[in-house]
Write a structure and sequence with these properties.
The complex is a heterodimer. By secondary structure, chain A is of the alpha/beta class. Helix content of chain A is 45%, strand content 16%. The model of chain A has no long low-confidence stretch (mean pLDDT 94). Chain B is an alpha/beta fold. Chain B is built from 18 helices and 20 strands. The model of chain B has no long low-confidence stretch (mean pLDDT 94). The chains are: A alpha/beta, B alpha/beta.
Chain lengths: 328, 575
Amino acid sequence: MAKDIITKIKEANLLGRGGAGFPTWMKWEAVKKQEGQGKKIYVIANGSEGEPEIFKDEYILKNHPQEFIEGIKIALETFANSEAIIYLNHKYFDKYKKNLEKFSEGFPISYFRKTAGYLAGEETGLLNHIEGQRVEPRPKPPYPAEAGLYNLPTLVNNIETYYRIYEIKNDLYAGKAFFSIEGDVKNKGTFEFPENYPIKKILEETGNWPAFDFFVQYGGGAAGTIYLPEELDEPKKGATSIIVFNRQKTDALKLMQRWAEFYSKENCDKCTPCRESSIRILEMTKKNKLDFDKLEKMFFVLEKTSFCPLGKGMAIPYRTLIEKVLKK
Amino acid sequence: MNSFKIHINDKEIDANEGERILDIARREKIHIPSLCHHSDLEPHESCRLCMVEVEGDKNLRASCALLAKPGMKIYTDTPTTQKALKINLALLFSQHEDNCEHCGRVEKCKLHEYAEKYAACGNIHIDRKKKLPKFQFGPSIFLDQSKCINCQNCSDMCSKQTKGGFITLKQAGETFEMFPSEEKNIDCIYCGQCIMHCPVGALSEIESYSEVKKLLKDKTKKVVFQFAPSVRTSLGEEFGMPLGTNVTDKIFAALKKVGAYKIFDTSFAADVTIIEEAAELLEKIAKGDNTTMISSCCPAWVKYAEFYEPELLKYLTTVRSPQIILGGLIKTYWVEKENLDLRDIVSVSIMPCTAKKFEIEREELFVDGKRPIDYVLTVRELAKLLKELNVDLNKIEPDESDKDILANPSGAGEIFGAGGGVLEAALRTVYQKLTGQELENLEFKPLHEFKRTKMAEVTIGGKTLKVVAVSGMENAKKILEEIKADPTKYAYVEIMACPGGCIGGGGQPIPIDDEIRKARAAGLYSTDEKRKVRTSHGNPGIDILYAEFLNDKKNKHKICHTTYEKRKKGEIKKI
């Protein structure tokens, strides 16, 4: 049975739905290898959804709690001596825990209320938070699959990933993903489309393709990339969040400042490029004065030398906004 | 261990499994800059200065954490690494208060060194930390947030040295800064290991050397000095001498030159400590009390015990530390002997330690209502004082003349400065008292399951005493757990809060690592080996002192013994 589900996940080519797009079967197989050493295995559902303007996991918690919990139960069956923790941001915890418990009762599934910031959504930051350590990403290796929570083998998957695993197990999976749509649109909400669907088609089919000049941020309200309307014909990688900005009505500098406020508050301050750049970019946006040479230098060290994906990805929204919107 | 070849900058190098690239590069004398790397700590990967290119990898990798793999090709000096280094350095420099000319750490500051070396000096952004607060922990430690570069070495070290970590990162608005803990059950033990592991000058001792400098010029005062055992093999480093050089006679000469009235050697008082501790241990054995006796000459350990483990205080020897014993002797025995006016005397000690600044403020150690010591200077402060008064230790001629008995230690007193030294010195005397024979060679076995811990078994008259010496609170905590589980497991336990003992103390020259600790300790042991008198009980000065003064019970009690109590959290001052 165990081999079955991992093979099925592999055949379904399911990629993690947290945004990084790592092949799910590889995580499962790495954890499976740790079995039989008498060690407890932790199965964690990451429901931190800390990126601004993303709410597709909440959609699942609200509309598909049973299927999501079934996905977790599949993991519990797959790994001997395992125990599950559902890690939810405080809003989701307060809102949905009670209902979820209806389905998880009788199983070794507990709930953890996320009170820490954005970085506690990064899988090793999350582990630190549960352990009561300072929330910052851990060096890898070791990967959580080998030494995760309390140094024990740990599987960390996004909420939607478990939902899709439920589908795969029951031969219902059709390669779809949930997309959240926000911003200057008529029909905000969460919609299900094939995972490789182009943004243009998604916006059109949800009645959200704007009649005005606009740009889109795809991949999250802070870390997402800026795209112009003519770039939306091809499928994109990253967190499935679409935010539409009315170009005339959007103050790009203010938008940058909002990101900078988010980053300088939410990053963990561990590594130099991320800690310092986030603060310096905020300083510049507050003063309404961008120094493109200094910015380019900071983008360089962010991308090349940051410790974790948060810092590595921080340059993308700024850079694409500057190139495509601000400098034009 | 698995060995294989890697390439660094196209040079073929042998590497072992589990080795990290930065360590390999340092061993091969290939320079890679780094601020947060320290061999005492797990790589924290925070400063991002040690980034290297790895063939086949588009991102730069932090060499401090990067494990070597067979066939790996590493490049340390490429246009990309150089560009990243300069930008990150400039970012770091901009968060660090630009006040180098007034900073006591500038000579040893790695940030300053790199900023000059890579011409990345100067702020590319405004100094964002300028207005951040400064803190004082007790009378010992000074934390200046405006100089902190967030590397977390201090907090990593502090969590090893305390329970829970006294120095911690806390969010203050948009950034995290280092703060002293506000938790009621977490306190500083004043060990100063945070200072030793700070790559810049954000942490330092609370200095007293300017006051001492002034007093040296005051004609109405007689400034007398004592210096701790470990100072003799570390002070030379501040003057560029080879590691482990013994500068005892130069210390006498240098202090005389700056105006010292008299100079004593704390190692002599270490001999007194040994005589008293041995007597206490012998009495315990005679009474059939099998519980352990724990050393108490390390003030950071005593603070730890009083704050974190008060239930263990009953096992601490009542004997005072050598610094306090000598301070007491100076202000009673010696002053009377020399017929001096106590009001003229200023007693200064040179210590490898920041917790010693706290120890002199303990009222239970006062002698006839007075502090035994007026000022404690760290080794670093002494070096500054000498340099400011234009005394170069390299140039000064050693001075062996005019040594009081209080300045003539045995070898046993001198090895106090190295981890395990107190234990060894004590056993030399206990053994002799119990058997009438001298202990030839004490063989320590490392306790492999614990770091920086060594154990010995001494059989005396059919009875085997198990003794252990441990340094670094992280390691000592494990021994403390053993004692709690079985208080009779060890007959005697030496605990030194700093890794390696006083030679690695928080008041010692910076930098510190195991190579340096080893060299300083070796310096002490080679002095001991050359000494004619290698036992405390064999020191003729000890006989004189006891005959003239300490055989009197009242004198002995007020000079040599103390009590301990559960202690509340110490003062934290925000400036």
